[in-house]
Design brief:
It contains five helices and eight strands, in the order E-H-E-H-E-H-E-E-E-H-E-E-H. The protein is α+β, with helices and mostly antiparallel strands. The chain is globular and about 35 Å long. Helix 3 packs parallel to helix 4. About 25% of the residues lie in helices and about 25% in strands. Strand 4 and strand 5 form a beta hairpin.
Length: about 160
Amino acid sequence: MKEIYLAGGCFWGMQAYFDLKDGIINTVVGYANGRTQNPTYQEVCTDTTGHAETLFIQYDENIISLDKILSYFWKVIDPTSLNKQGGDMGSQYRTGIYYVDESDLNTIKASVDKEQNNYNEIIVTEIESLKYFYPAEEYHQKYLQKNPNGYCHIDLNI
């Protein structure tokens, strides 16, 4: 199994969206690449921790490629929007691709370059190695499954 970490605004919608895709084995929402250890949701919402709401994705590369995962990712975010997705604003809602396998970097860069052709504005999605990931509180996990009428800016049918 391989893994990738994607920040695409509110992590509830990202998790619900990717949980519908073939080849996705496991997802966990959490906080990535900030300056504090074991942050809480309340701390992350203060816009002072540096963490991004992020989705951990474990996938079977024999069923779905990283390139395909990234093509799904681009469909549900605005990669030119800094610290804002849908109605959510703040640095925790920035977009990012955080990798753990250095060999994924070429695929990621090629995907960004290809996606840039769709925009006049510069893509501001962060591309970084994963430094930290802390799972979010239990009530955030599979939130939209537990709360079908919960807020989500992502069209889950794309």
